[in-house]
Amino acid sequence: MTWYVFCRLCFYMLQILAFHDINPVAPVHILVIPKKRSGLSRLSRATDEHAHILGHMMVKVAQIVRENNIGDFRLVVNNGPQGGQEVYHLHLHIIGGRPMGWPPG
Fold this sequence. Notes:
Blueprint: E1 9-12, E2 16-20, E3 28-34, H1 51-67, E4 73-76, E5 92-96
Antiparallel strand pairs: 1-2, 2-3, 3-5, 4-5
């Protein structure tokens, strides 16, 4: 099956993509995903072999935030059905543009 999600690409690198969420929960809602899934469907499945890409994603989040003048933000990883994960390809949510409350959800 072939499917396409039309999105506005924010950031394109050799190992990751970042784009605006098509159903944003805040004024700023950017998804950061590794291009290669490498068995990493959720964070709880990460092993030592994933350390490089996970670290790389975090550094790129900081770069995306700086380059887009996002300011303060929340970084979210949903893990599994009870954690709110709907797409089983590890991804990070950069959420900002408004005050964030605690606890979330």
